[in-house]
Amino acid sequence: MSAVWRAARAAVGRRRIQTVVIALVVLCATTTVLLALALVGAASAPFEKAFAEQRGAHAVVAFDAARAPADRLAATARRPGVEAAAGPFGQATVDLPEPWMYLASGALTVVGRADPGGPVDRVRVLTGRWVRGPGEIVVNWGVAGTPDRSLLGSRLTVPGVPPLRVVGFATSMSRSAGAWVTPGQLAALRPDSAQMLYRFEDAGSRAAVDRSLAAATRGLPADAVTARQSYQALAEAFSSLADAYLPFVSLFGVLGLLVSVLIVGNVVSGAVVSGHRHIGVLKAVGFTPNQVVAVYLLMVAVPAALGCLLGTLAGGALARPFVRIAFSGIDTGLAPMDVGPWPAVACLAGMPLLVLAAALVPALRAHRLPAARAITAGSAPATGRGLRVQRFLGGTRLPRAVSLGLGLPFARPGRSLLTLAAITLGVTTVTVTTGLTGTMLAFANLGGGAGGPGVHVDADPSASGRPAQVLGDRETEARLRALGAEQVLARAFTQVRLAGQPGTYFADFYRGDTGVLADAVVEGRWPARAGEVAAGPAFLTQRGLSVGDRTALQVRGRTVPVTVVGRVIEGNAKSLAADWRTLEALAPGTRATEYRARLAPGADAAAYARAVRAADPGLAAEPSGAGNTATATVVGFSSVFSVLLGAVAALGVFNTVLLTTRERRRDLGMLKSVGMTPRQVVLMTVTSVAGPGLVGGVLGIPLGMAAHRLLVDNVGIVDFPGWMKDVWHAPQLAGLVCAGVGIAVLGALVPARSAARLSIASVLHNE
How far is 314 from 31, CA to CA, in rounded Å? Predict the structure, then answer.
């Protein structure tokens, strides 16, 4: 093995270009695969682990206290199929007339619990302590990150409710309440329902939870259950953002693996073919066939191991921020998202094995090659290989350098097919990235409307450090138009309750130039009158609703029946949108908390923002920023890996051309001796890969278009309309065809210029 290692190390030193190619290919593939594995792990393991640790409830159920007495509810905990239960806890609804701390105005569900522990739903105190007596409240921290300790001691003062002081922030994996007080304190809040928390023996699906709950509540009045929530909805909400990123991350991971296999196989195959004499010498001095194979496998394993290590480090550095972006804003009660060690371990163990498997097949050719034949073999291709094609091309009117170049791929068809496949995958990657960029940019610009720049005006009265507003709600809208805005969209944000559903939800109410929001509708239409709502796919799926279904919104004791009239492109799993007239029926007098002004083309957004602040110092006006986090993440990530995989494909072409020119040194010397100029040598060499590049471009475009459509059709939290998916145009497709030729020419140019500089004497002096 010492001799094998020395021979392999010498081969690595001689083949520096191939070594760099393998290392870079494996680095890119490892980085992509590690990101995909990290996202898969973060989408499942953290939720399941935290849910088990906190004994999360499979079902959170609210009962009408008048129809289901406490003793009968307590008896449901002993029904067959119930693994554990907690409660009944008293439950009250406190109406927040205006935003309080980080909570929007609307309904706040408060539950009376003596302690955060118990057999089900062990509430986790994040900051402060649990309630101990009257006048204290613990608030559910529904914001990402660590609770702000400076908010401890804040007071909740609501008409009709005793003053409550915040003594802690906690979180519940079951999302069983918005806040908690002692059972004695709850009586002063006028509870209207009782809460039970269940864990079932059979809870593997929504249907199983429904069956178990029906068995547990058998014998209670049919209308005793006022709201219920399955943990399946929580799990879906937790992983919904990750599911949106996972398809395209996985696609780039698969493409990276395929390119790695193709190029590694191509490199080793070329090394074996061009190294016949080296193989013969090794066997002649006593190397066994297995030792020769080991030399070539080690020659690949060294750069592969280096690339795998660097790719793991790069992937580990990118995985943490990427995963945290993918899970940003998810109310789970988990610690900040982190990546465990198993994706790195899987890549460190799996990628070198994959590379060795890809190298084994071409390396076995060295095993079968007799020593005498290897030593006496010339470097020219075998007689007759591709001669018919070359003779046919020679009979055409094409320039001789072009006809010779087009015939070269047929001399080594296996190597040419591997190169063609690498180019095809490179073009596929570029096509996918182009499509994703077009779709995501259209998504980011949604609602911008026609016209010039936009200005965002914040009118939230709860914002700190801002003077009281001078203008009223309608006066503000009128002033924004008078200052030069062509379009003004007003928005109010409040918490609502949904009939038959536990907890609180968020509703956006719009007025003004709402026509700019119509493009967001995928099915149905935008709400245009009172009693109409629209929501994204995540909200509708988790609530079991679809376009045309009816439900009811509740705010501060008022109830308004509503109809789902539209499904929009995207939306938070806990939010919906409605017309302003619905808000007037639910909460008269509520004012807008923000305005979006659209100016004329060429207008100065900064000057307009200054004019708004001068008109009312209580308003915060800033020019609207472009894009959003999801768009920047998708476009940035796919663009980076498109460039990397395109560069890797070009390196594969570089390797192919380099091997070909080394094999055909004598042929090049003969051609130059009969009058071929250096420019013709470059043209011939570049033409030899331009043909496969053109074919790769033609093949890669439909593959990339199919992959793009597969990605955008399977993003769970976004439902892209057809006009966002159809991003392809004839000039763009022509450019993508040229991308295949560009990858090929870019990879071939350096070795082509090197071949053009070969001197006739140095090539033919041994003839």
Answer: 6
- Beta strand residue intervals within 208-306, DSSP E: 225-230
Distance, CA of 161 to CA of 133 (rounded, Å): 16
Distance of alpha carbon 358 from alpha carbon 355, whole angstroms: 5
Q: What are the helix and strand counts (H, E) for the chain?
A: 23, 20
SS3 string, 360-384, reads HHHHHHHHHCCHHHHHHCCCCCCCC
Q: Residues with Cβ < 8 Å from 356, sequence gap 6 or more?
A: 297, 300, 301, 304
Looking at the whole model, is its pTM more than 0.85?
no
Q: Determine how β-strand 532-535 pairs with β-strand 575-579.
A: antiparallel
Residue 521 has pLDDT above 70, yes or no: yes
pLDDT at residue 29, as a whole number: 75
Per-residue model confidence (pLDDT) at position 278: 65
Contact 153, 163 (CB under 8 A): no
Q: 289-326 vs 2-14: helix axis angle to the nearest 10?
A: 60
Residues with Cβ < 8 Å from 44, sequence gap 6 or more? 239
Q: Within a 13 Å sphere around the CA of 345, how many CA atoms are in the beta-carbon half?
A: 4
- pLDDT tens for each residue of 333-353: 444 455 667 788 888 888 888
Residue 511: per-residue pLDDT: 92
d(CA 397, CA 376): 38
What is the tens place of the pLDDT at every residue in 258-312? Answer: 766 766 666 666 666 555 566 666 777 777 778 877 877 787 788 888 888 998 8
Which pLDDT value is given to residue 450? Answer: 53
Long-range contacts of residues 312-318, Cβ cutoff 8 Å, at least 24 apart: 312/30, 312/31, 312/34, 312/344, 312/347, 312/348, 314/27, 314/30, 314/31, 315/30, 315/31, 315/32, 315/33, 315/34, 315/35, 315/38, 315/343, 315/344, 315/347, 316/34, 316/344, 318/31, 318/35
Q: What distance separates the 2 farthest-apart alpha carbons in the chain?
A: 106
Q: Which of 37, 717, 39, 45 is nearest to 334 (CA)?
A: 45
Q: What is the pLDDT of residues 540-585, one digit of tens each?
A: 877 778 888 888 888 877 888 899 999 888 766 678 899 999 998 8
Does the pLDDT of residue 459 top 90, yes or no? no
| C-beta separation of 694 from 738 below 8 A | no
Q: Which helix (H) or strand (E) holds 266?
A: helix 231-274
Q: Could you give the residue ranges of the DSSP H alpha helices within 54-79?
A: 70-75
* Helix, strand, coil percentages in the chain from 3-state DSSP, rounded to 5: 55, 15, 30
Which helix (H) or strand (E) element contains residue 88? strand 82-96
The radius of gyration of the chain from alpha carbons, rounded to an integer in Å, stands at: 34
In the three-class reduction of DSSP (H, G, I as helix; E, B as strand; rest coil), residue 562 is classed as: strand
- Residue that the structure tokens 């007037």 belong to: 584
Tokens matching residue 207: 């249907």
Name the DSSP class of 718: B
The contacts of residue 573 (CB under 8 Å, 6+ apart) are 236, 237, 240, 536, 538, 539, 542, 717
Q: Which H helix or E strand runs over 196?
A: strand 193-200
Token pair listed for 166: 């915040």
Whole-angstrom distance, CA of residue 331 vs CA of residue 711 = 26
Task: Supply the DSSP symbol for 468.
Answer: P
Read off the pLDDT band of 1 (50, 70, 90): low
Q: Are strands 505-512 and 155-156 parallel, antiparallel or unpaired?
A: unpaired
In the structure encoding, which two tokens stand for residue 404, read together? 């010779």
Residue 66 to residue 90: CA distance in whole angstroms:
12
Three-state secondary-structure class, residue 522: strand
Integer CA distances (angstroms), 311 to 255, 314, 317, 348, in order: 15, 5, 10, 9
Residues in the chain: 767
Spatial contact of 198 and 231, defined as CB atoms under 8 Å apart: no
Pairing of strands 155-156, 136-140: unpaired
